[in-house]
Amino acid sequence: VFIAQSRASGSHRDLEDEELTRIFVMIPKSYTEEDLREKFKMYGDIEYCSIIKNKTTGESKGLGYVRYLKPSQAARAIEECDRSYRAILAEPKNKSSESLEHDYYSNNTRQEPRGNTFPFCGQPEFCSFEKSESRVQEPVSKRLSVVSRLPFIQEQLFALFDLVPGLEYCDVQRDPHTNSGYAVIQYSTAASAIYAKYKLHGFEYPPGNRLTVVFLEDGSDSSE
């Protein structure tokens, strides 16, 4: 089993893709790597923990990495850990830690995250919700609409979206006049829906057929 990525996501890798298994967290400066491991081991099997330190003094900067063996474990940690850790998916190692620290602080210190809506705020698409007042009102929900110029196969589409934890249902419909595909996807949390939209909007499935994924109003208070 492997996770397919859109071309914009970079090279194709296997399930243990670093982009999906490594999280970046804000921690007390007194934490050791053992403290960090102890706090996050309840969410899955940890491959390693590391703390970012000042190169001159050797003191902790209050930031760290936790890498899990499976993407589902990293997703669970982001979803369930205390909000004070402000956990996000870490950028690949080819992006410098200084650049990531700058992005992280600029995105996370402006205001407190609201519920589970912004747990992936290290990603540019999610941060755009906060960057301008005109975008803050963009409807975010647990439900997604998926459109394709080719018809969907229920089992295949379900399997694709089920790669993101929390899938509740996948309802595939078909327009007999245009033969295009349409489906409604719902997750248990808005965080899962946001992540699915980020990863699968524009994804070619099957190859050459680009998916359009947008939020659908689900009756909940989107400000949460």
TrEMBL record:
The keyword RNA-binding is annotated on this UniProt entry: yes
CDD domains: RRM2_RBM45 (cd12367), RRM3_RBM45 (cd12368)
Swiss-Prot/TrEMBL keywords: RNA-binding
Superkingdom of the source species: Eukaryota
A molecular-function term among this protein's GO annotations: RNA binding
Boundaries of every RRM domain copy: 21-95
Keyword presence, Isomerase: no
The protein's name: RBM45 protein
Species: Eubucco bourcierii (red-headed barbet)
